[in-house]
Amino acid sequence: MSVGSFPDPGSPRVRFGAEMRRLREAAQLSQAAVAARLGCTQTQVSRLESATRTPSPGDAHRLDLLFGTEGGTFFADLHRRIAARPGSPIWFIDWLDEIEPTALTLRSWDPLLIPGLLQTEDYARELFRRGPGTERDDVEKRVEARIQRRRILDKPDPPLLLFLMDAGVVRRQVGGPESMRGQLDYLLDIAHHPTLSIQLVDPLCIAGLAGAFMIAELPHGRPETIHADSPAQGQISCDPEVVKSIKRRYEAIRLWAYPEHLTRRMIEEARREWT
């Protein structure tokens, strides 16, 4: 996928949508008619065809039944390719494919680590390498997938990225001193990006202890969406009450954030300690 081009015209998700549209039009069915058969809304069908929604296994199965595709598994096979995105758990694919690349604003809080969008290769590699049950062959795939997320910074119209992180993360060792120096150098460098803000948060901030999360403000009237982290499986939700709760917590944490100029000074001080 090229930088700044979303979605990738050669991706399985785009092929899924294009073939769905072709078969629907050939059968002279409206999007509403297909939606009724899939058990979803016309808007969801439109998003499947435009590749701005990731299909579910049920979508694929019902489309294979509806259109009688050759062998009966065309859409199911494409779905397996979509779900097999290297280095990314299936539950996170919707966020990576639909939310993060299209967001107008991303707000992020992390109490334990440098946020994924700001991690260097060495830092990310150490995290994945030390993860329980991680296969050695998977580490580089995961590192590559994480670094690829930075492409949103190179878009012609990058989102506004607002990062809050606990002040302790710049002194929490991940890898050796060289890895930490490289990570903090990267933070100091990327902090100059015109649409990016990094603020460290006072460790006494109790509101931040509940865990890491991200809030995405989306275009075209789409509802704000959150991703809340957990050791097993993160939660992605646009439920208004869930979003409101996370936004309130973000604002409570932000009250404990140091100004950007002071944050840079604190990162520089921590960087000097990693000798």
Automatic annotation (TrEMBL):
SUPFAM superfamilies: lambda repressor-like DNA-binding domains
Molecular-function GO terms, alphabetical: DNA binding
Pfam family, one: HTH_31
InterPro entries: Cro/C1-type_HTH, DUF5753, Lambda_DNA-bd_dom_sf
Start and end residues of each HTH cro/C1-type domain: 20-74
Highest taxon listed in the record's lineage: Bacteria
Protein name: Transcriptional regulator
Organism for this UniProt entry: Sphaerisporangium rufum
